[in-house]
Amino acid sequence: MKVVLLKDIKNTGKSGDILDLKDGYARFLINNKSAKEATPGAINEVKIKQRAKERELEELKKQAQKIFNKINNQVINIKIAAGISGKPHESVTNAKVSDVLKKEFGVNIEKRKISFENSGNIIKTFGMHSAMIQLFHGITANISINILETNE
Questions:
Q1: Does one domain contain both 77 and 143?
Q2: Does 75 lie in the same domain as 29?
Q3: Are residues 124 and 104 both part of a single domain?
């Protein structure tokens, strides 16, 4: 019996898959509202949803490419206070970098998509540092962060 899966089912398939299953298992899935019979209308509905999802992903990819073109290989300056010993009094987190990117370039980037090279999620020293920003699958922007000392 052909069915359209309404939910992801382990070892069977993902939501929206059209499968030819044994009658007993297909009826079990239909009764549990995990699948519905693959009528021409149901198959057409699945194809329409898949096309809409593909268009949405393509739009997200275009937006990520625009952001990439705007921020890739840019240098941002962040000023932080220094302690008496000349070491930073505070640290720079990926959330702070996200805020600076929003102010300087007008782009909203989730802090979890920003990772610093060689220092985890926190920068604790002055100078130049590099960061990678995962914008979309296969689109990663690289930026340089210059941590400067303020005399406040």
A1: yes
A2: no
A3: yes
Residue 54: C-alpha distances to residues 49, 62, 143 (Å): 9, 12, 29
Give the separation between CA 30 and CA 35, rounded to whole angstroms.
5
How many domains, in total, are found in the chain? 2
Order of strands across the sheet that contains 2-5? 18-20, 2-5, 35-37
Whether 10 is in a domain gets the answer yes
Q: What is the pLDDT of residue 152?
A: 59
Q: Which amino acid is it at 110? A: E
What ranges make up the beta strands (E) of the chain?
2-5, 18-20, 35-37, 75-81, 92-93, 114-116, 122-123, 127-136, 139-150
Q: What is the pTM of this model?
A: 0.74
